[in-house]
Amino acid sequence: MGEQSASQPTKAAKRPPRESVTSGGPAKASKGSAKKAGASAKKSGAAVRPGKPGKPESHLAMVRRARRINRELAEVYPYAHPELDFRNPFELLVATVLSAQTTDLRVNQTTPALFAAYPTPEDMAAAVPEELEEVIRPTGFFRAKARSLIGLSAALRDNFGGEVPGRLADLVTLPGVGRKTANVVLGNAFGVPGITVDTHFGRLVRRWKWTEQEDPEKVEAEIAAIFPKSEWTMLSHRVVFHGRRICHARRPACGACPIAPLCPSYGEGETDPEKARKLLKYEMGGQPGQRLSPPPDYPGKPAPALGAG
Ligand code: SF4
């Protein structure tokens, strides 16, 4: 893992009062640093690096900054969780396969009817393909996904006694199940620590200069070296939460971001606090979340059922 070009972080922001974040306000303690950073970003046109300009950040300093970001995110999103609705490992496996190329919301709106019709691997393995396709049609790519679901259900029935296995090596033998899906299932249904590198995770860790890798497996390996195993699953949820709510792909809401003083890419998005607040999504923007059945500590509203909004 090479050293990154970011320099040492400035005095990091203290966590802002939770309400200032959830109501869309910029981080209190980070406001000054964020403004300063924004001003110099405007002047130079470049992303602001935390710390002394021009001084490369050592690997150790990057690791400390990364862990600090993780701690800050833990305070911003104490309720971070997988955003797929599931009641058992089989449902999580199926929902994760369906989530390819669509939103978790659309999957959550589709799975209640799916699991009512096919509650077990045995039921799903015996499905009439055209009937299964109709049920999962709202998630897109429904023919390929139906093939995967029937195939993986048959493999569970025939090779694993109708149970989802709790080992990565077994999970990736199932049709349509790659390392990312396997890590989601292991981390959230079996309590096995795992880093899930999806599009949000990859984008954010590169913006934070934790890695320069593009390949998800290499990203996973480099991030795994920065954090203790016990943090891997929750770190994944926090980073994805931040990517979906604040640090968007096209227009990150830098002016409302509580970790702005720790971010070398501050200024890549909207720095005006008022405008940035309007970009916040889900509970941060006062909107419903993605889960129809969110965990009890989720501060936002549940998502609507399919066709209800
Ligand atoms: S929104 Fe993203 S790019 Fe902007 S300061 Fe926050 S983490 Fe950095």
UniProtKB/TrEMBL annotation:
Polar residues composition-biased segments: 1-10
Gene3D superfamilies reported for this sequence: Helix-hairpin-Helix base-excision DNA repair enzymes (C-terminal), Hypothetical protein, domain 2
Region (Disordered): 1-61, 282-309
Binding site for [4Fe-4S] cluster: C247, C254, C257, C263
Sequence ranges assigned to domain HhH-GPD in this UniProt record: 98-245
SMART domains: ENDO3c (SM00478), FES (SM00525)
Entry keyword annotation includes Iron-sulfur: yes
Cofactor binding annotation: Binds 1 [4Fe-4S] cluster.
Annotated CDD domains: ENDO3c
Keywords from the named record: 4Fe-4S, DNA damage, DNA repair, DNA-binding, Endonuclease, Glycosidase, Hydrolase, Iron, Iron-sulfur, Lyase, Metal-binding, Nuclease
Molecular function GO terms recorded: class I DNA-(apurinic or apyrimidinic site) endonuclease activity
The protein's required cofactors: [4Fe-4S] cluster
InterPro entries in the cross-refs: DNA_glycosylase (IPR011257), Endonuclease-III-like_CS2 (IPR004036), Endonuclease3_FeS-loop_motif (IPR003651), Endouclease-III_FeS-bd_BS (IPR004035), HhH-GPD_domain (IPR003265), HhH_base_excis_C (IPR023170), HhH_motif (IPR000445), Nth (IPR005759)
Compositional bias of kind Pro residues: 293-302
E.C. number: 4.2.99.18
Reactions performed catalytically: 2'-deoxyribonucleotide-(2'-deoxyribose 5'-phosphate)-2'-deoxyribonucleotide-DNA = a 3'-end 2'-deoxyribonucleotide-(2,3-dehydro-2,3-deoxyribose 5'-phosphate)-DNA + a 5'-end 5'-phospho-2'-deoxyribonucleoside-DNA + H(+)
Entry keyword annotation includes Repeat: no
Compositional bias ranges of the Low complexity kind: 23-47
Pfam families xrefs: EndIII_4Fe-2S, HHH, HhH-GPD
Family: Belongs to the Nth/MutY family.
PANTHER family linked to this entry: A/G-SPECIFIC ADENINE GLYCOSYLASE/ENDONUCLEASE III, ENDONUCLEASE III
Physiological role: DNA repair enzyme that has both DNA N-glycosylase activity and AP-lyase activity. The DNA N-glycosylase activity releases various damaged pyrimidines from DNA by cleaving the N-glycosidic bond, leaving an AP (apurinic/apyrimidinic) site. The AP-lyase activity cleaves the phosphodiester bond 3' to the AP site by a beta-elimination, leaving a 3'-terminal unsaturated sugar and a product with a terminal 5'-phosphate.
Protein name as catalogued: Endonuclease III
